[in-house]
Amino acid sequence: MLPKSRLINIPLVTQSNPSMENFGITNAQSMLRQWHDLDLLYHRFTPGFENILEEGVNAGWYDIDNTLERLVFQWLFIPWLQQELDAYWDHVNNTAKHRNHNKVLPHGIPNLIYKAPGDYSALDFKVKVDPQAIEHVRMLYITPSHPIFNLVPPAFGVFIQECYEHMDHPSITHENVWTLYHNLCSMIQECQELLFNESDKYYYMGGVRNGLGLGIITLG
User: pTM higher than 0.85 for the full model?
Assistant: First the structure.
């Protein structure tokens, strides 16, 4: 038996002699494995990022009713969270999970099973769609210029990108994301020519460079 302070790893599988099973140990081990299983997004991925987001809200750094803060938040946090999710997805789907002998499921790396289920004695139930059909539906029903596809208003997006590049385009991490948010908000607030409509449908109202548009902006 180890002191609890040293219990930093657990076995993949527990076994006991027949007729002497200790289901308490088995159930505890199963729960810990599930808790740390990469496919449980809710337990593994979500709480950490929820804590990061709540930190800013609880500290009063982010006010959803403040147009500038909302736009900076959307521009900075949404792509970063998507990038983190993409990395999580890539790791999970390219990592073989522990085989469960109680389930009749193919065992291996999920991406390989998805691409070639026959190699894992599995049936392929995917409905394959012609890429041309997808493109046809996209052109028929989607308007690329619709505002819903803009992360932020286009003019604001150009301006904040220049601000970000002026900061030497730093990498975003768990530790610095709120610092970058503060710096961007402060930098934009210093540019008093930038005006916002405080209605529900916010938009950039011009005024930069005496009405000549964003252009090349010097922030130094």
Answer: no
